[in-house]
Amino acid sequence: QLFVSFYNSLPTCVFVAAVFVRVLPLRHHLDVMEIHQIARLLNQTLSPDGAVINAATDALDHLSTLSEFPFTLLSIAIGGENGGQKVAAATYLRNFTRRNVDSIDTNSGITKEFRDAFVRALLQVEPMTLKVLVEAFRSIIAVEFVKKDAWPELVPELRSVIQRSDLIDKNPNSEWKTINALTILHSLIRPFQYFLNPKLVKEPVPPQLELITREILVPLLAVFHLCTEKVSDAQHTSEVQTETTLLIICKCIYFAVKSHMPSALAPLLPSICQDLIRILNSLSFDGGLTCKDGYSLRMKTAKRSLLIFCALVSRHRKFADKLMPDMVKCVSEIVKHSPIINKLDPLSERTVSLAFDVISRVLETGPGWRLVSPHFSSLLNSAIFPALVKNEKDTIEWEEDPDEYIRKNLPSDLEEISGLRDDLFTARKSALNLLGVISLSKGPPVKTSTASSKRKKGEKNKRKGYSSMGELLVLPFLSKFPVPTDNGENTVNEYYGVLMAYSSLLDFLTEQSPGFTDTLVRNRVLPLYETPTPQPYLIATANWVLGELASCLSEGMNADIYSSLVKALQMSDIGGVSCFPVRVTAAAAIAQLVENEYLPPEWLPLLQVVCHRISDEEEDSSIYFQLLSTMVEAATEKFSPHIPDIVCLLVKETSKNLPLDLEPWPQMVEQCFATLAVMAQCWENSASEENEQDDSSQLWLSGQTTMMRAFSDLLQHAWLRSASLMEHEVAFSVPHSSCVDDCSTLLGFILQGITQADDLLKLKVSELMLVWSYLIADWHAWEEMEDLSTFNCIKKAVILHKKFAVKNFLVGKLPLPPAPPVPQKSILEGIGAFITEACSQYPSAVWRASSCVHILLHNPSYLPEGEGVKQSLVISLCQAAFSRFREIRNQPVPLWNPLLLAIASCYLCFPDIVEKIVEGIEHEGFTSFLSALAIISTSRFDHSLSSEAEIKLVVMALAQSLDKLIGRQNEGSLLLHDCVASLMEAFLKFKKLEEEEEEEDEDEESEDQASGDEETEDDDDEDSEDDEREETEQEFLERCAKTAAEMENGTIVEEGDAEDQELEIELGCLEDVDLENTVLLVIERYHQVLLRLHLPPELISNFLEALPECKLYFQQAI
């Protein structure tokens, strides 16, 4: 009787579509031998022998080119000789379909035949096989049904099949399985849970979703209602098929309303909600039914029902307001089970968690507040606080998996208080979230005098004149629990909940007077640290609370707070209870305080504790490294005096743990290198500030020397074999490429600080640079933030070589006999390999690499023996830059500039070689290069050149190219016109920038004098910028839609960070070139040819005004 009424309102289909009744056309396509071979290979994929599996997979891949191959897999998935073979066939077919679904031609008969056969197979296979095959079906649906909308018959035919399926038609012998058909429906509707067209500001309901809802989902609601009536009694769980039917239909409803609201579904929401409430009311949380087969399905259906409530309240307020009373009444009963949360299985706890989330979302609406606010007190007392109290599950997790305990209970990112959080998977987190929302809720009006109650005209502060529930309800409730004076279990457990509650009040406390939070912390948190026998569970939670409230604390509390946290940071295990979470949360709290500029009154006690824990090789040393990094970055000025001593200590400890072989470095070593890199960077950044005073300058230089020596010792220990070996030859067994980015920072610190040639020998600079160059030459783990240090080190290496001619920089050392007299790879060659590879990586790497190209080619003094290295460098760099340019040249984008400038630098070094290279890559590649170079030189290019160095480089390259172009006569005339015009326009821009720079230099002194007077005005301007109108939701959606359209049209190309685009290029020896004289010589040599180009008169006039010496050659044009 359960399914009798299904589709009573629908006309009986005259036929079942051919897609579902056609017999799979398999046996007459493949001979029996091939079918048996495929079946045998599938069996072999189940072998425990990896070699057998690989061989079988390769053979299947070879057979997969046959057009009948997927049909054979379908046949085996349905009627294979055993379950393992069926699942193997389904698994291979899933992977095969995912690989080929986008390349299938939907107009071919085979493809239509395959997808129809696939649906038929889904309707017949067993549950285990269905689970695998449906994943492949989703790939087909995404392309054929959603993206292309090329399967119009699927929905009506699926409707017919559901009507004739075994449960609906009450026919156990039916060819179609109802559960399988509903699974297909679930896959069909699943993609529409998201918005699919980001180019639209407001996306309408997709027509496919409307069709599915109208033709199938709405009629299925009759079955859904009958199922909910049958399962309404929790003491009698219904059969698995009924529970499965409920769950699948519930999922379909959720996907239908998660983002959209189909028109056919909206009028039925009240009845749907009543059915969902009936399911939720049938739940039992006593643990007695959770082991039964159908009850886990019931709980999953309940979870999905609560997600539907959340979606309705958040996305569809228009329909949800009238449904909220029944929702709240239902979920209020569920959250009352929070006192037994420790006895619930994860699925049941997730259900309670979602019930809290529903209340949070309801409370954030106007009607919801009026509905929930009368029950605040009972919610807090009977549901929220019991979920916060410590329980047995917390104790077990603390001991068995402390990291998981910290992640779940003491996170560091709970500042946002909103019912819209999707990551609150535990009941405690959801309860804290709800408590935060309640604390901000307004209470009754506060009685004030008439004068004080008058508002200024236009004032819109809705909270003014009202008290909050945090003040009226939450804090008074929490104050009922005294600070524990003993270790009584109940007292400790309850106060644990109090501390948890305080952590959720950040937004509420931010709105209070400055001393409000101080009083709370002084009276309710800090006393815990002074108890004779501290409770680790309470101390860890107190640490977390202090970190969460960092932004609300006043300076007057910092001594007491840091004293308490330092105690916690060095707390050892107590009575067999691990204090690892105590130390971790103390370190995290100190980090949060420092990041909020809440600094300790004295650094030394804190640093002594941190360094002591590191030197003791504690298992939690990683947290101390992270803490050191945070403190250095957040408070460099206060922390910097201690950096050299800490560096020496860390180097000593790290050297003990470095492996002697080529194995990867331990995590502790990697973390220490990262901390040292942060300290090196902060010490460099403090140089300009310290050097303003002579005494400070000497102190800074002394610290720099100490750190250079320590870093060199560490890198030698990590990279070089032994000191005795280094006296004769460099150890070229390249070490493991661990921490290359951090090592680059340390090496760069050494290179930048060298002021004498003797330092090169003392610090083994050449040897270290050579090993480093080998490491980066083989670098493949490209990462934008990490690679920056390597690029910076390259620039420092080139500058150092220019000063002191570093050994092995240009030409590698000859090996000792009897090895062949072939030079080993030089430092420059390793750098060149890294830069060449960078040209093919992410945009920021291209900008950085191109900046390094100019330094490499024009800064080092290439002696005769180094010319071959330079030529090889030009060849590799030019090939890489031009190849990358070809990939993006169809769209004029900023990334053109660095690539073309890099090729221009190469061209100035070896013109003939560069021309040959680009011509070898592409026919008329040299013409393409010069044409693009001319384009970026003009103001018509949207991303035209802006710096003097860039413009100078382009003008020199264009001038160099005229010899080639003028010799080509007919084929070069148009390009010659563009190049000359661009050369003249670029030269004009160069002269203009020169004049502006001179004017700025003249005005610099007067501007410095006026800067003090304007400081206040600037501050006011900054304040006014803060008050600028925020972007509205509509404007945000419009901007996103525009960006999505541009991305689809290909008009947006990733360009990298703005900082990388603003990198100043260094021209080295080209800086001494007189650009004006270069241009004058070109005009003088080719003026007769230039007169025949018919250049724009205005351009010639402006050019002659900037370079009057050329008037003699342009008299005819004038």
Automatic annotation (TrEMBL):
Residues 443-464, 994-1035 are annotated as: Disordered. Residues 995-1035 have a biased composition (Acidic residues). It comes from the Eukaryota. Gene3D superfamilies: Leucine-rich Repeat Variant. InterPro entries: ARM-like, ARM-type_fold. Residues 453-464 have a biased composition (Basic residues). PANTHER family: ARM REPEAT SUPERFAMILY PROTEIN, IMPORTIN-7, 8, 11. This is Importin N-terminal domain-containing protein. The lineage of its organism: Eukaryota, Viridiplantae, Streptophyta, Embryophyta, Tracheophyta.
